[in-house]
């Protein structure tokens, strides 16, 4: 593909088929992150395992994807992004069939780990492929659609999971991926085309270090409150030490897994920092809302789900609009406005009165969704517009890793607050919303500062 063709992207309708292959993969990956949780008790009964063990059906997927995200981004640039994506979507679909047919827990866990790695393969190169498929002036729009696809998958997971478990058995949670995967595979083979350039060499030390660091981080965060506190603190500290070693190693590695010169662009660096802080704040908010609704205000699980719904709905509406708008207006200004709105939503949740109604929660939750939807696509466009083409796949991997690590840190902070508040007040529910949403608002405020700093860069 010549430089002129790269500037114009794929011709139509090929670009739409190619984008569909990636968007369907995003929906499948997001769906499988949330659809299983509601069925864990049924899976435990069916496979005759205890509750603590069945948790790993969800954890195996998340840990495998977190541990291999940067590795997959590096491999993608060496194997070829388009070829690598095809491998990812094929293995994701096949492992879904494997999950559905699993007769034992060990086989199901193995299939879920393969699913998680396949998820990392798809997501680590998926965003970078948009830069090949679409011309620069259309990137905002496709990033908006990508955020919409992720929101739909995440929000519909519990709903589809509940419906399937009401009328069918748990293997159907995975069977539903077969038609979606088949369509995505067809579009990928038909429209993505062949790779023209690849890199050589691989950073094995960086790969092992990053896998251990992010794998340990995900596991230890998930086990806060379950495992011994000293063990959890040790694992988190070990993860932090491995991350420091990983960064230091990247400075001298011959073929670094994450080339540090990607951060030479200040606009890119501040966009990444904004993303990490926003993912942490979002992680705190998403996990805190159910606790506040059910423990502090005594809402039922169904009522809590309905109250939370405006968040993903607002993201689904605002993300495509902000993405399209960023093609005409400064992406940085739009994403900064989104962070500020997100801060307002979190702040309003922190200040919510004791005597409240459904509506008091709904409009506050909706503001958070609006802010996040306005932030994400323009910020992603800003990231990819300020990185060299040779680092596009790495940028995609960094963004995916930032999401996973940021949300894990957000979850860890929530768990720590619950433990500390329970110790000092006996019942964490009385003060939890003040501290949780207040901290999330403060972190999002840091994201707004980072975002504002790049306006002048």
Write up this protein.
It is a multi-pass membrane protein. Belongs to the major facilitator superfamily. EmrB family. This protein has 457 residues and is mostly helical. It folds into two domains: 194 residues, MFS general substrate transporter like domains (Growth Hormone, Chain: A); 200 residues, Growth Hormone, Chain: A (Up-down Bundle), CATH 1.20.1250.20. Helices cover 79% and strands 0% of the residues. It contains 19 helices and no strands. The protein is globular, with a radius of gyration of 21 Å. The N terminus is likely disordered.
- The CATH architecture of the largest domain: Up-down Bundle
**CATH classification class of the largest domain:** Mainly Alpha
User: If you compute it from the alpha carbons, what radius of gyration comes out, rounded to the nearest whole angstrom?
Assistant: 21 Å
Number of helices: 19
Let me know the number of strands. 0
Query: What is the average per-residue confidence, as pLDDT, rounded to a whole number?
Result: 83
Runs in which pLDDT lies below 50 for 5 or more consecutive residues are 1-5
Structural class: mainly alpha
**Order of helical and strand elements:** HHHHHHHHHHHHHHHHHHH
Percent of residues in helices comes to over 70%
CATH topology tier name of the largest domain: Growth Hormone, Chain: A
In CATH, the homologous superfamily of the largest domain goes by the name MFS general substrate transporter like domains
Shape: globular
| Proportion of residues in extended strands | under 5%
Sheet having the most strands: none
Distance between the termini: 32 Å
How many domains make up the coordinates? 2
InterPro entries: EmrB-like, MFS, MFS_dom, MFS_trans_sf
Keywords: Cell membrane, Membrane, Transmembrane, Transmembrane helix, Transport
Domain Major facilitator superfamily (MFS) profile: 18-457
GO molecular function, one term: transmembrane transporter activity
């Amino acid at each position: 593909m010549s430089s002129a063709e790269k500037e114009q992207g794929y011709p139509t309708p090929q670009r739409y088929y190619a984008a569909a292959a990636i968007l369907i993969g995003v929906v499948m990956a997001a769906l499988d992150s949330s659809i299983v949780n509601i069925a864990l008790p049924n899976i435990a009964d069916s496979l005759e395992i205890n509750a603590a063990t069945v948790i790993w059906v969800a954890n195996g997927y998340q840990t495998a994807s977190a541990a291999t995200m940067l590795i997959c981004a590096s491999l993608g640039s060496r194997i070829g992004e388009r070829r690598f994506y095809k491998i990812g979507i094929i293995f994701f679909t096949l492992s879904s069939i494997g999950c559905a047919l699993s007769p034992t827990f060990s086989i199901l866990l193995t299939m879920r780990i393969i699913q998680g790695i396949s998820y990392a393969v798809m997501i680590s190169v998926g965003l970078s492929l948009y830069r090949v498929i679409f011309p620069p002036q259309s990137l905002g729009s496709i990033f908006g659609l990508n955020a919409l696809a992720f929101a739909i998958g995440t929000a519909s997971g519990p709903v589809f999971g509940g419906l399937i478990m009401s009328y069918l058995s748990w293997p159907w949670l995975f069977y539903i991926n077969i038609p979606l995967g088949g369509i995505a595979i067809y579009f990928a083979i038909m429209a993505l085309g062949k790779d023209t350039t690849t890199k050589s060499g691989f950073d094995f030390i960086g790969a092992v270090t990053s896998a251990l660091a992010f794998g340990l981080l995900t596991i230890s965060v998930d086990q806060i409150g379950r495992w011994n506190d000293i063990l959890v603190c040790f694992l988190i500290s070990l993860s932090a030490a491995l991350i420091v070693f990983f960064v230091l190693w990247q400075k001298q590695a011959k073929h670094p897994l994450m080339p540090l010169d990607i951060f030479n662009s200040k606009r890119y660096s501040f966009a990444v920092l904004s993303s990490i802080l926003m993912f942490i704040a979002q992680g705190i908010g998403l996990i805190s809302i159910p606790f506040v609704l059910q423990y502090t205000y005594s809402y039922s699980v169904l009522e809590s789900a309905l109250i939370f719904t405006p968040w993903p709905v607002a993201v689904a509406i605002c993300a495509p609009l902000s993405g399209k708008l960023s093609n005409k207006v400064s992406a940085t200004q739009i994403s900064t406005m989104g962070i500020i709105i997100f801060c307002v939503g979190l702040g309003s949740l922190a200040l919510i009165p004791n005597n409240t109604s459904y509506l008091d929660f709904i409009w506050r939750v909706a503001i958070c969704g609006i802010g996040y939807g306005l932030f994400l696509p323009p910020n992603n466009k800003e990231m990819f517009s300020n990185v060299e083409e040779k680092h596009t796949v790495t940028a995609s991997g960094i963004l995916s890793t930032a999401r996973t690590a940021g949300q894990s840190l957000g979850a860890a902070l929530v768990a720590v607050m619950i433990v500390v508040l329970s110790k000092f007040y006996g019942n964490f529910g009385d003060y939890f919303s003040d501290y949780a949403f207040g901290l999330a608002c403060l972190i999002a405020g840091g994201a707004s500062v980072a975002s504002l700093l790049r306006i002048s860069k």
